[in-house]
Write a structure and sequence with these properties.
transferase, 6 helices, Heat Shock Protein 90, 2 domains, Helix Hairpins, HATPase_C_sf, ChpT_C, five-stranded mixed β-sheet, alpha+beta, two-stranded antiparallel ribbon
């Protein structure tokens, strides 16, 4: 018997759609739940301080939910007709709204150009992967590789205790033996996007940083 694991079977179209829906729901359930909690506090005729706390919670959670929805629509959804092009400036706005917070900042060094939809979706998914490597926060530096129609991307994540999840690196590889579930679908989908763009996506350590490249 060989000690090499065979690649896990790829999910079919229906299963992939279901897994991506699960991923989006996972991203939204926390802020939506917080909105519900805030409304429940308001229903109890709270004291002025509690009322202001509830309203602040609702405002912040609604803003978070909106940013995540807009990001997910572009990163996972149709986001326009087949063959559509997307402005990288819009992608930057979506990425900042979803990924930037008091712990994580984005250094965006890409030109403002129109790119094919799948290439922009690939970039946003690469940024999600990069963010996962700096759980304590840090900086995501986004640079182009090449230019024009053949442009690729480099997203470097630097921060305290940056780490490279091997399971994600494996899922980005076409020979991965890992099963694809709701937790693994995002890097798997990133790989599919890269293949659709004629690129290869790789996650690897680079000094104190972890870098995702598509070229």
């Amino acid at each position: 018997m060989s000690g090499t694991s065979s690649p896990a079977p790829a999910p079919d179209a229906l299963e992939l759609a279901a897994l991506l829906c699960s991923r989006v729901c996972h991203d939204l359930i926390s802020p939506v739940g917080a909105i519900v909690n805030g409304l429940e506090v308001l229903d109890d005729n709270p004291k002025p301080d509690d009322r202001e706390f509830a309203l602040d919670l609702i405002r912040k959670s609604a803003k978070t939910a909106s940013a995540r929805l807009q990001f997910c629509r572009l990163a996972f959804g149709a986001a326009g007709s087949s063959g559509a092009q997307i402005d990288l400036g819009d992608a930057q706005t979506m990425a900042r709204g979803h990924l930037e917070d008091n712990k994580t900042t984005i250094a965006w060094n890409l030109p403002r150009v129109l790119l094919p939809k799948n290439k922009v979706k690939l970039l946003l998914n690469m940024m999600v992967i990069a963010q996962q490597t700096i759980p304590r926060g840090g900086t995501l530096t986004v640079d182009p590789i090449g230019e024009g129609d053949s442009i690729g991307f480099r997203v470097a994540a630097s921060g305290l205790n940056a780490r490279m999840p091997q399971n994600i690196a494996d899922l980005l590889s076409s020979g991965s033996a890992s099963a694809v579930d709701a937790h693994a679908v995002q890097p798997y989908y990133t790989r599919l996007l890269a293949q659709a763009c004629g690129l290869k996506v790789v996650l690897a350590p680079e000094g104190d940083a972890v870098v995702v490249t598509a070229s």
